[in-house]
Amino acid sequence: MSDAVRSYLHYSPKLSQRVMINPSSVVIGNVELTNDVSIWPLVAIRGEVNAIKISARSNIQDGYVLHVTHRLKYNPEGY
């Protein structure tokens, strides 16, 4: 696993085919990047409290932070 792709607790990111992650970005924890996804410079995708899935042929542009909320009783899926 590269420095850009990091485990968190018992979660490791899942990368499908032809995924590009810029070395200045990080993908952490319960994250799935499907086919042909690109992650551009200075992006942080943090799946430490819930799952994040980026669908096929998507790209996350420079400087974005993707993070989600906890699952709660009144919101069992989180956001």
What does this structure look like?
The chain is an all-beta fold. The protein is built from no helices and 8 strands. It has strands at 5-6, 14-15, 20-21, 26-33, 38-39, 44-54, 59-60, 65-67. The strands form 2 sheets. Strands 1, 2, 4, 6 and 8 form a 5-stranded parallel sheet that branches. Strands 3-5-7 form a 3-stranded parallel sheet, with no helix packed on it. It is globular. The mean pLDDT is 92.
**Rg calc:** 12 Å
Q: Which percent range fits the helix content?
A: under 10%
Q: Please tally the helical runs, counting DSSP H or I stretches of 4 or more residues.
A: 0
Query: Could you name the CATH homologous superfamily?
Result: Hexapeptide repeat proteins
The helix/strand series, from N terminus to C terminus, equals EEEEEEEE
Mean pLDDT score: 92
Strand composition percent: 35-45%
Fold blueprint:
Layout: E1 5-6, E2 14-15, E3 20-21, E4 26-33, E5 38-39, E6 44-54, E7 59-60, E8 65-67
Parallel strand pairs: 1-4, 2-4, 3-5, 4-6, 5-7, 6-8
Concise summary:
This protein is mainly β and 79 residues long. The protein has one domain (5-67): UDP N-Acetylglucosamine Acyltransferase, domain 1 (3 Solenoid). It contains no helices and eight strands.
Top keywords for this entry?
about 80 residues; mainly beta; UDP N-Acetylglucosamine Acyltransferase, domain 1; 3-stranded parallel beta sheet
